[in-house]
Design brief:
- InterPro entries: Homeodomain-like_sf (IPR009057), IS30-like_HTH (IPR025246), RNaseH_sf (IPR036397), Transposase_5 (IPR052338), Transposase_Tc1-like (IPR002492).
- This protein is mainly alpha-helical and 226 residues long.
- It is built from nine helices and three strands, in the order ααααααααβββα.
- It folds into three domains: 61 residues, Arc Repressor Mutant, subunit A; 47 residues; 56 residues, no CATH class.
- The chain is extended, with a radius of gyration of 31 Å.
Amino acid sequence: MVKRRELTEKERVRIKALHDAGWSFRRIGQDIKCSHSVVKYALESIAETGTYKMRQGRGRKQKLTEADVRHLKILSTRDRRKTTADLQAEINASRSESEKVSRMTISRRLNEQGLKGRIPAKKPLLRPANTQKRLRFAREHKHWTVDDWKKVLWTDEFKFELFGQHRHRKAGERFDARCISHMVEHGGDSIMVWGSISGNEGWHPDCCCSLVQMIRNVSRVCLNRI
């Protein structure tokens, strides 16, 4: 038998209000995101007890009290980079083995507080001086028209390496096989891509190939003509 989800006091208040407004069990269930039978039992419980609180003794006792949840929320908002595993370790540090909570419990309680796991937005890492320069540039050009911006040529470049040099590693892992970059004598093959775009013209990419790549291209052309 599938266990029914326990409703919060706030959800029970809303169910009663919607029912008094003439909503059907099914429609209320769609709004609360529960089955119509849960709505029915909730209304019966409210009528019997005269309160919106859950009946005492029903369901397993939650390991995190309201105070624990508030503390959990503070830990999460104080450092947004903390994962559920980090928060679990902090919460369980002072708990006995039988009182320890799972990562799933941590995640559920955070979700209930409106704190859901999301991929962080990305932006360039700028020094304070560069941030001020960008702000000054924006203020100096805030009155520019579309025609003014069409006269600007925007450019960018990026170098793609076959044998990349960057590895994420911990202290003491410099010679770990997973952190070693395989090298060749000529430094590795790469290609530089440069492009520009403006309001009057489209995107114009241009590839500046390495010497090795140029030799390969010439060789391929020559072989095709033999």
